[in-house]
Amino acid sequence: MTIDNKIVPFGKPMRKHWMFDPLYTPLNHGSYGAYPFPVREKRREMQELNDLRPDSYIRVRQTEFLRKSRAEVAALINAPMDECVYVKNSTTSIATVLYNLNFQEKECLIYFDHVYGALENGIVSLEEHSPLQARKVSFTFPIEESELERRFRETVRQARDDGLRVRATLFDTVTSSPAARFPFELMTAVCREEGILSIIDGAHGIGMIPLDMEKLQPDFFVSNCHKWLYTPRPVSLLYCPKRNQHLLRTQLPTSWGFIPASTPAEAFSAPPHPKNPNPNTLFEHLFQHGATSDDSAYVSVPAALKFRREVCGGEEVIMSYCRALANKGADIVANALGTNVLQERNLKPGQKSRIRDCSMNTVRLPIGFVNEEGYKPDIPGSWVTLSPKEWTRAWVYMQRRMMGDFATFVPIAPYGSWLYVRVSGQVYLERSDFEWLADVLHEVCREVADKKY
């Protein structure tokens, strides 16, 4: 199947380009992403080239394909190609950065509540295997950006008062659960002012929100291309400006690109010797050859970008549609359930929510949640209040109903005193999909309230 070279209407007409089961309603793009037929064709073409002549492909041609792919994705985020490499996913990318920072005694990493759970596990593991001390900035959504900044600066001050060197800070572009746009631009600037390395988890970033590395100037930025950029799974972009490339000496696991500690910092981004057939710098080469794996997703990125241009109309058109649909869809679900969408308090008429300025929104369900075992107050407005044990059983039931009986899925999780659902906007969805979802959630929530789980 080839690209039509014409703009296809968004919504259900767009689904002809995607590989979904026609009986399935794909409402959870935010978790695993999805990619269209033309991108699958390109990936299979690359896999076949690899299989035909493995040595020629892996030793020579893969470098050519990767450089073309990295050049296109670098242009998308306004960054030099030799500051952009590929890693398997954002979790691995962040783990690679944190491992390479080689934290010493009295060095501190600060991160925020709502960090992705796998990354927090990685931080705990790193504390167990290194002198790292981590501090968390506690907060709940909604929160004013000025208050979030105040809490961050206070955490930095307290760590320094305790004799720690605050070396780096980890934060999101868009948090996963609950889904909310994080003020990453502000926090990057604050880190720069405080002399702290900024590490941005943009797992929900590229393809969802506009990104400009020249303007943002983070110290490290990672983003999953397979979530919102229509690439196969898994492929993550790792951006590291030249000023920090000397800090990254190994990928995980350590492999052929390893750079010994004795290597001078200026050698990392220096151009290769004219007689060297490998056109990559040391930094680029570091991430070129790792453990044997199928890297066809990496070289499929240009096909995804072509699809986005020629079929969907380009980045701005895609992002605007998905953002507007996520906001409208969330409102439809909230209105049907008699609840609300997570956003700032006391928004003025016509004022746009910063938290909702992305392609995922978080909607409160009419189901309360209490952490205290055995204590079950009636939360006003809730159809039922669940304890943690009840929630676990209800969650299994809700998953089974959605995936098995309704052939769809949306993430549901407790947050504070309520259960919330995350909705994602995408070009193959339309208003009617969310009207249908509202009916499904109404039915499933009523069944939970009636203790059918």
Automatic annotation (TrEMBL):
Domain spans labelled Aminotransferase class V: 61-246
Cross-referenced InterPro entries: Aminotrans_V_dom, PyrdxlP-dep_Trfase, PyrdxlP-dep_Trfase_major
Keywords: Pyridoxal phosphate
Record field: transmembrane: none
UniProt-listed PANTHER family: HERCYNYLCYSTEINE SULFOXIDE LYASE (PTHR43092:SF2), L-CYSTEINE DESULFHYDRASE (PTHR43092)
Protein name in UniProt: Aminotransferase class V domain-containing protein
The organism of origin for this protein: Penicillium angulare
